[in-house]
Amino acid sequence: MIKGMANVWVPVQDTDRAVNFYENTLGLPVVKRDGPWAEVDANGIRIGLNGREPQGTQAGGGPVLTFQPDDSIEETVEQLRSKGVEFPAEISDHDWGRVATFKDSEGNDLQLYAPPQG
Fold first, then answer.
1. Nearest to 39 by CA among 63, 56, 22
2. Theoretical Cys-Cys bridge with 85: which of 21, 34, 55, 80, CB 3.0 to 4.6 Å?
3. pTM
4. Dist CA 73 CA 68 (whole Å)
5. What residues form the membrane-spanning segments (predicted)?
6. What is the pLDDT of residues 7-17, one digit of tens each?
7. Residue 61 sits in which domain range?
8. Cβ neighbours of 51 (radius 10 Å)
């Protein structure tokens, strides 16, 4: 059902300000920058800096664990729904990929991520 970790991302209000902090204050190298998305390398673990999904969990603050599904994102959503997992919004499409948001048993934000096709 779940292939592995896609990334860990931290919600930010201002991507430029966050990149400046992680790069210049913490000294972590920026390894990717694409519009409102940036990634820094924290000793082999990539941390994404991005705003929260406009719909979905609507929670404030905190990192989000993002998983790569084994199957298509649609199939994995259906498999998880059959196990009682609730998805508060539909799968959202972006230039950088597709996302389905949900929560774990303790209320922590989780996502499924599928990279863009082609």
1. 22
2. 80
3. 0.63
4. 8
5. none
6. 788 888 788 88
7. 2-114
8. 14
